[in-house]
């Protein structure tokens, strides 16, 4: 009897460790404290919970619970609307999947965070006049931005809008996103923004960008991409101009849970829908 | 020997040369030369103008306008740290991280001061810090942080969004468009010509064609409209436009002959047509049916007018089953948030369009929309708080657990619309998800749309 039990528990603990290790490699917790990555991390957490909370080993469930709590605790510091909506989504996932006690703890934390957030936004009442930044500084700042932030900036005000139409910005974005498209006809006076837009539509890129995740073959890990590149310096040096392979959220979840990811869209849909109704009773 | 050397060296070392710097407000500062020379601009000044420059109070080097005394001292601190050769890279990095921690206003001043002094490493440092602040924020949030005016017209704001549409969305859009055309044909047969009904259809058509594939054309037309400055005229013709728009829907599919067949206010149409032709100067004919083009022009112009017109409180008209109420006159409040306008426009249009006799939409304030008839019940919980979706006001959204079956498609279509603007209204999806969580088939639909 005894050896039998041992044999059974060994592979189980190994599996558990594997999951836990993978989860730690995903570095979700670190991303939560980053202002930019917070919404991505929350979305990933809620996807993980939606799609496979019941399948996870006990200690991984504890990790996830801990990260959810820290997500809510950090919410007041993130004063973006994207963060709030991501947190809301997380709460809903928590509500549907967590067991009663954990759920209540998480919800309490969330409510406290909301109150703190409200208090913050109320006290934010300064009417100072900022000096207007010169155009070339604006362009320099924008050169560090990712695609969506650049588009947001272009809608802020007239001077910023003009700065964002600078061709060099779009050219570098183009090179970044579409490195394979080297055979482009580069003529003087080319509108890089238009070129970018056309390529973007062609390659339906926005879906891939929504997760904030990419796979770096140099360090063989799933990372939060920093404007399509691996955040680690060595990998960036090795890869040169080549961007990461972007990953969708459900692919990340599949990686974590060890399920084989089907490239078929409808399959992932079914999975997602099934996972949503993962009430605790379904095991 | 060495002592003598020391004796010679010492006084030289004691005699640190100073440079006098003058800021635009007139205050003059004395700075060690080696520190000041770290800034290329000062270095050039000294070298160009010869040794006399900056050597005394009288001929101080005047600094560019953007450098105020506070910034100057900050920059000099930076230079003082970095010009010492013996520091390791790590030390410098740590110093920089601490150095850059300041409020946004000072960061902006620092960036512009460093730029005018051509101190590239500091420009990079402050620019990166500012970029980190901007990252991941919506335009409204950025405006708040940097205290910038919202001085773009709606078309200009639409520009980047329109450009980043995805194919699946265009497919969805086409599907909706086709569905709509069918439905309108049916309605045409069944009902009489209720003007207000048409309002909504027209607007959706505007939206659809404005966005769908005719973008480049549309942008040109709207811009030429601006030049003509005929918007104000059109504003007065609001009601007439609404009437005459009825034509648009059918005309898109049918020929010009049907124009004559429609009875409503033909004179107004002529007016509008003539206006159209004026603005079509210098306008490339891409081989489309001219009538069709004119219809589209009208749609565009109307849409543009709509976007620029104000949303109004309709507090006096709570229960209006047919249309969304925009009062052309009276108290107006201009929404600055593009998202709210477009998001509400979409939601209003779609809801109003689909089943106008049951589903009415009213606007209260600038952010709450009541979509009556959605749940079949009356009362407070029908207020669908758009601001919650987009402006991040902390109020709990109502729950639509009991959306009746015939509304499912409707809500699905709303969601499809939100997907047309992926990053601006991405919020919409998550928030709508929340409210519709109780309704399983719709939720599955949302997930499907989300993965597109």
TrEMBL record, chain A:
<dbReference type="InterPro" id="IPR057039">
    <property type="entry name" value="At5g52880_ARM"/>
</dbReference>
<dbReference type="Pfam" id="PF24104">
    <property type="entry name" value="At5g52880_ARM"/>
</dbReference>
<dbReference type="InterPro" id="IPR036047">
    <property type="entry name" value="F-box-like_dom_sf"/>
</dbReference>
<feature type="domain" description="F-box">
    <location>
        <begin position="127"/>
        <end position="173"/>
    </location>
</feature>
<dbReference type="InterPro" id="IPR001810">
    <property type="entry name" value="F-box_dom"/>
</dbReference>
<dbReference type="Pfam" id="PF12937">
    <property type="entry name" value="F-box-like"/>
</dbReference>
<protein>
    <recommendedName>
        <fullName>F-box domain-containing protein</fullName>
    </recommendedName>
</protein>
Automatic annotation (TrEMBL), chain B:
<dbReference type="GO" id="GO:0005737">
    <property type="term" value="C:cytoplasm"/>
</dbReference>
<comment type="subunit">
    <text>Part of a SCF (SKP1-cullin-F-box) protein ligase complex.</text>
</comment>
<dbReference type="GO" id="GO:0009867">
    <property type="term" value="P:jasmonic acid mediated signaling pathway"/>
</dbReference>
<keyword id="KW-0539">Nucleus</keyword>
<dbReference type="Pfam" id="PF01466">
    <property type="entry name" value="Skp1"/>
</dbReference>
<keyword id="KW-0833">Ubl conjugation pathway</keyword>
<comment type="similarity">
    <text>Belongs to the SKP1 family.</text>
</comment>
<feature type="domain" description="SKP1 component dimerisation">
    <location>
        <begin position="120"/>
        <end position="157"/>
    </location>
</feature>
<dbReference type="InterPro" id="IPR011333">
    <property type="entry name" value="SKP1/BTB/POZ_sf"/>
</dbReference>
<dbReference type="GO" id="GO:0097602">
    <property type="term" value="F:cullin family protein binding"/>
</dbReference>
<protein>
    <recommendedName>
        <fullName>SKP1 component dimerisation domain-containing protein</fullName>
    </recommendedName>
</protein>
<comment type="function">
    <text>Involved in ubiquitination and subsequent proteasomal degradation of target proteins. Together with CUL1, RBX1 and a F-box protein, it forms a SCF E3 ubiquitin ligase complex. The functional specificity of this complex depends on the type of F-box protein. In the SCF complex, it serves as an adapter that links the F-box protein to CUL1.</text>
</comment>
<dbReference type="InterPro" id="IPR036296">
    <property type="entry name" value="SKP1-like_dim_sf"/>
</dbReference>
<comment type="pathway">
    <text>Protein modification; protein ubiquitination.</text>
</comment>
<dbReference type="InterPro" id="IPR016072">
    <property type="entry name" value="Skp1_comp_dimer"/>
</dbReference>
<dbReference type="InterPro" id="IPR016897">
    <property type="entry name" value="SKP1"/>
</dbReference>
<feature type="region of interest" description="Disordered">
    <location>
        <begin position="219"/>
        <end position="243"/>
    </location>
</feature>
<dbReference type="GO" id="GO:0031146">
    <property type="term" value="P:SCF-dependent proteasomal ubiquitin-dependent protein catabolic process"/>
</dbReference>
<dbReference type="GO" id="GO:0016567">
    <property type="term" value="P:protein ubiquitination"/>
</dbReference>
<dbReference type="GO" id="GO:0005634">
    <property type="term" value="C:nucleus"/>
</dbReference>
<dbReference type="InterPro" id="IPR001232">
    <property type="entry name" value="SKP1-like"/>
</dbReference>
